[in-house]
Design brief:
The chain is of the alpha/beta class and 276 residues long. 34% of the residues lie in helices and 18% in strands. It has nine helices and 13 strands. Strand 1, helix 1 and strand 2 form a beta-alpha-beta unit. The longest helix is centred in the middle third of the chain and has 19 residues.
Amino acid sequence: MLRSMGGTRVLLTGATGYLGRYLADELRGRDLEVLRASSSGAGVEFGFDLGDGEALAAALRDARVDAVVNCAAMSSMAACQQNPTDAVRINGRAPQVLAGACGVRFLQVSTDLVFAGDAAPYRAAAPLRPLSVYGLSKAEGERLPSGDRLVVRVPLLFGPSFDGRRGATDMLRGAVGRKEKIALFVDEYRTPLHVADAARGIADLLLDSAVRGIRHLGGHERVSRYALAERFCAAVGLDVAEFSAGHSDDPRRPKDVSLVGDWSPGRGLDEALRDC
């Protein structure tokens, strides 16, 4: 198991993003050496273009690490829809190149949006049928070469972010006081997870070298987007009347991608929401 190896070095891509920042702290808290990588290269140990296979391979040779975790992604559904070529290059091809070049344990962070939403709850072995370009590109990124490979699908994430604009609860806080109420779907279901719990789960799975294949970090409960707002408002003392209930009519948004988890967060949804 990686946790028993002294001086373990982990290369973490997407280290300046929402989940990446939490995961970097989590791994460091377990006495691992974390080499952070991002596309900008600002304030991190490595900077490279995820779409440049040669640069990725060169960075891995220079890093000399024991494991690689790929959190980097083109994560905006709208941006992926508008730029499908870039989405597939970054979310689909880059993980394959990284996994093929690294020669060490490799963990790819994926998403619940690889499913169509018509056969929930989803176990890790469930067939993929993404509805959006984002989901399609992330599904492609799960097609990794053989070896010590692990794909971890995460659900909707919530919790405080570095700029106050990243997580689901950040969005809810930011909507308070607006003249026009934000409509939240009562018919779109997820199993949301606190980002700190997601980082802990990824670290646990990474460090258990017996774990390979695909695993789900299912959240605390299956809830709709509107129900999540109700629970969040109750947990932190906001008024749910700031939001309105709506219905999803976008065919690219699956109705129910709730996950059957392979790891337990160890706390309930309301407790996690109070930590926001």
